Amino acid sequence: NGKPLIAYALDTIIQSQIRHITIVVGCDATNIESYCKSYLESQTRGSSITVEFIVNADFESGMGSSLKAGVSAVLNRNIRHYPSIPHAALICLADMPSINPSTVNALINTMNEVTKDEMIHSTPEHAAAFVPSFNNSRGNPVLLMPELFDLLLDLSEDFGARHLLQANREAVREVPVNDAGIFLDLDTQEQLRNLENDSL
Questions:
Q1: Residues 6+ apart with CB under 8 A from 67
Q2: Cα separation of the two ends of the chain
Q3: Which of 66, 93, 157, 161 could crosslink 62 through cysteines, CB 3.0-4.6 Å?
Q4: Mapping DSSP to helix (H, G, I), strand (E, B) and coil, where does residue 4 land?
Q5: Using one digit for the tens of pLDDT, what is the confidence trace for 49-68?
Q6: Nearest one of 98, 71, 89, 83 to 130, comparing CA atoms
Q7: Pairing assessment for the beta strands 129-134 and 172-176 based on DSSP bridges
């Protein structure tokens, strides 16, 4: 529809409660960073959203390397600027154009409620990952608490966050949402054409 896929992902984030975005670039990094800067400036004038870009020189090794680069940047930023404040990382993919901002907010709100409840009641069970579900199936994005950051950094470069969640099932909390966009991942030109044809 005349707009790069990543713009849809950025729209989702800037319309949510998120206030800091870390964008990991690899292939065609210069052009993508330039576009994202220009697009975000045009869409976020007067807002409090901050943005940083991280170049993953090892992007060809797989998605895991980009996850590691992004989480490492989040850790460094938090330790440097906000050492006493608990943080989480929302893992968003640039090729998922239909996720509703309300889904992102539902993940954040659930995390805040669960964390508050655990603090008040000292519950032994601890949720450290929050995933959206629609019709009893899980999708993206995934919200991770700092407890899982070290495990994510130990993942093989060709593994994504899904492997982390499978290995830590007891720490995963599903968040029901009314959003089929959590499944729509466009990896090929054919998938993109099918989506555009369906929307005509």
A1: 91, 152, 155, 160, 161
A2: 10
A3: 157
A4: coil
A5: 999 999 999 999 888 889 88
A6: 89
A7: parallel
Amino acid at 140: N
Residue whose C-alpha is closest to residue 40's, from 17, 13, 5: 13
**pLDDT of res. 123:** 54
Q: What is the pLDDT of residues 106-142, one digit of tens each?
A: 999 999 998 887 666 555 567 889 999 999 999 999 9
pLDDT under 70 in the chain at which residues? 83-86, 118-125, 155-161, 200
Q: Is 111 in contact with 130 (CB distance < 8 Å)? A: yes
Question: If 0-12 CB within 10 Å is exposed, 13-18 middle and 19+ buried, where does residue 144 land?
Answer: buried
3-state secondary structure of 2: coil
Determine the Cα–Cα distance for residues 90 and 104; give it in Å rounded to an integer: 8
* Backbone φ, ψ for residue 26 (5° rounding): -140, -90
Query: Of 75, 32, 92, which is closest to residue 56 (Cα–Cα)?
Result: 32
CB atoms within 10 A of CB 90: 21
Match 């369906």 to its residue by tokens.
Answer: 198
d(CA 147, CA 4): 34
What ranges make up the beta strands (E) of 49-140?
Answer: 50-55, 89-91, 129-134, 137-138
In sequence order, what are the beta bridge partners of 133? 138, 176
Give CA–CA dist 161/63, Å, rounded: 9
